[in-house]
Amino acid sequence: MCRAALAGLLLLAAPPAADVQKWLQGVDTSRHAFDQAAIRARASQIVDGKEESSAEFEIYVKGRDKALIIFRDPKNNGRKVLTVGNRMWLIVPGTTNPVPITPNQRLLGGASFGDVAKLRFADDYTATARDVTGDVGGRECLILDLQAKDPAAPYPRVTLFLDTAEHLARKLVFFLQSGKEAKEALITGYGSAAGHAIITQMDIRERLGRESRAVTRLEYLDYRQAKLDDAIFTPEGAKGL
Q: Which domains, from first to last, does the chain contain?
């Protein structure tokens, strides 16, 4: 009887695959609530509790494979990063040709352009729920192990902590191909848009090298639905925006 009861508890502890997939879709919605959106954001690098540098930018997103980031801070004003499918370019004012870059290219500190514009968990990863829970900031969390569908993904493995009460992402741990922990993202703020919870702030900490002392804070200051022309998601169209 004890063995039967224990087996039943273990079955209850492992959520159905359909629920896990729905939770992943919810995490994606918290980052991309609209199919077409205009977002105003800020990134700041904080070292030993003091802000050392920052960047302000606008993000235009259309579907899952088109995004345009435009820098608006004095240092980088007018620089743009364009993403179309698996391709990404840096567009610098006054230059003729866009420069191909990778999603791992740094936005600021521990935050990459891929973190801001590209990552989709429900499409890009398969997830398995552990039969134990964890704690993030006093919240009980389900722990999901995510495996990238593409073996060449920059982060082939991710651990996602999802609170049991609201099924909102509270922490993400990203791993390199080598198996080493690359960085940790702690989601510290949520708001709402179109009836969905959306992430308004996250702190990203590198786990390797000298950047491990720094926290990169991403703040999503304004998030609104938009109607965007496909033309702006081309190098020529982006230059004219």
A: 16-239 (2.50.20.10)
Q: What is the pTM of this model?
A: 0.82
pLDDT tens for each residue of 122-177: 888 999 999 999 999 999 999 999 999 988 888 899 999 999 999 999 999 999 88
C-alpha count within 13 angstroms, C-beta hemisphere, residue 54: 13
CA–CA separation, 60 vs 207, rounded Å? 30
Cβ-contact 144, 164 below 8 angstroms? no
Tens digit of pLDDT for each residue in 21-58? 889 999 988 888 888 999 999 999 988 888 988 999 99
Question: Contact at 8 Å (CB) between 158 and 172?
Answer: yes
- Distance between CA atoms of residues 82 and 232, nearest Å: 9
Q: Are 209 and 193 in contact (CB under 8 A)?
A: no
Residue 230 exposure: Cα atoms within 13 Å on the Cβ side: 2
